Amino acid sequence: MATTKIENTLKEVYGLVSHFIKMPETKMWVDYDKEADVLYINFKRPQKATDSEMLENGVLLRYKETELVGITVLEASRGKRKENTCGKGIC
Hints:
alpha+beta; 5 strands; about 30% strand; DUF2283 domain-containing protein; DUF2283
């Protein structure tokens, strides 16, 4: 039972590796709230944002001043999203 869980976890992690190494940020803290179906990704140790912006695709960008410090993905389990939605007029 535990071996299957470990194998499944490794399979998912291996699938993510190529995506993570392409990220411009090298440190990330990730947390998934299964009950709320919300994925939190922080590029700095979790902290309060001074500004945020909701995108059309259910993604919330969190800023501290002008620096992007985190992304919150609502309804995270719904999967693929429209990718060309950008924040702060930047694409």
